[in-house]
Amino acid sequence: MSIKVMIVDDSAVMREVMQQLLAPHRDIEVVGTAMDPLIALQKMQRVWPDVILLDVEMPRMDGITFLRQIMSTRPTPVVICSSLTEKGADITLQALSAGAVEVITKPTMGLRDFLQDSAQEMVGAIRTAAGARLRPQPAAREPERKLSADALLEAPSGSLLNQRTTEKIVVLGTSTGGTQALESVLSALPVNAPGIAIVQHMPEKFTRSFAQRLDGLCAIEVREAQSGDRLIPGVALIAPGGKHMLIKRSGAQYVVEVKDGPLVSRHRPSVDVLFRSAALQAGRNALAVIMTGMGDDGARGLKEMHEAGARTFAQDEESCVVFGMPKEAIKLGGVDQVISLDDVPQLIMSWR
């Protein structure tokens, strides 16, 4: 059976380009196109799609409102098509938080190049979305009072911080479905959570907006990483899109290094790069969780961490949007235990 796709975009040219892009693929069938969500809803009553390709900014109803309506009435995998602008990044992240499965880059010009260069990206996103396991979104939670990193470092004697060292760290790797998963995990952590380094597969201009959005939702501080940033309690560092992030030991402290480099396991940032550096630099002082995502990035790095004495975990299939990365890590034998997404915050807080 073919994957039925509905294209919702206010640009007639873009709708035509997407149809041309998908036409050669026999396992994908475009069952309809629409210039806005209201027209799309009418058409979808006749043939409900398996996947929706959705623009964000459209007349009469924006993509996020449409997405939330779909997810509350008849959850359906959605792939967001967004321009990589700062404004577009923020809006797209709202869509991912609302339940969208994947993001693909929508160009502002050069549609011919888009057709030639992005065909496999779009087709892959649709196939991934068609197999996605949709998960109800957590209710927004009231964050605890946020302390700055400096305030945490200067906490007075007898505080929770001074009852533990800063030597133990947590590394998380995730891809498709990871924006929702990370929001669920990080927003559940208190201000004295261990220092966390994160690789989330995400385009370059999205990671800063993503970190800022999480920072506003969480008790801990969340920010896009820069070289030299320390991994300290109460702080989560997210690898910048388009850059690798590694852990380095500096005396009794851990810092991150952000650097250019070739794609590793088809990604930059790569979970394998983060995990391998944690294996080398932290060993038994590190805890790792490989989470929802397509492909195998992180599987080999997690095995190296396992062999170095780190504690290693994989998110279970039931709570994953896509079980690819955890499944590959389990097959390689680098996972100590398989756990639910809901158990990850408690696991992190037990790492003392």
From TrEMBL:
Domain of life: Bacteria
InterPro entries for the chain: CheB-like (IPR008248), CheB_C (IPR035909), CheY-like_superfamily (IPR011006), Sig_transdc_resp-reg_Me-estase (IPR000673), Sig_transdc_resp-reg_receiver (IPR001789)
Ranges for domain CheB-type methylesterase: 163-352
Catalytic reaction(s) noted: [protein]-L-glutamate 5-O-methyl ester + H2O = L-glutamyl-[protein] + methanol + H(+); L-glutaminyl-[protein] + H2O = L-glutamyl-[protein] + NH4(+)
Enzyme Commission designation: 3.1.1.61, 3.5.1.44
Active-site residue numbers: 175, 201, 297
The protein's enzyme class: hydrolase
Domain Response regulatory: 4-121
Keywords, ordered alphabetically: Chemotaxis, Cytoplasm, Hydrolase, Phosphoprotein
Sites bearing 4-aspartylphosphate, chain numbering: 55
Localization (cell): Cytoplasm
PTM entry text: Phosphorylated by CheA. Phosphorylation of the N-terminal regulatory domain activates the methylesterase activity.
Domain comment as written in the entry: Contains a C-terminal catalytic domain, and an N-terminal region which modulates catalytic activity.
Chain's role: Involved in chemotaxis. Part of a chemotaxis signal transduction system that modulates chemotaxis in response to various stimuli. Catalyzes the demethylation of specific methylglutamate residues introduced into the chemoreceptors (methyl-accepting chemotaxis proteins or MCP) by CheR. Also mediates the irreversible deamidation of specific glutamine residues to glutamic acid.
Similarity annotation: Belongs to the CheB family.
HAMAP family named among the record's database cross-references: CheB_chemtxs (MF_00099)
Protein name: Protein-glutamate methylesterase/protein-glutamine glutaminase
Highest classification ranks of the organism: Bacteria, Pseudomonadati, Pseudomonadota, Gammaproteobacteria, Pseudomonadales
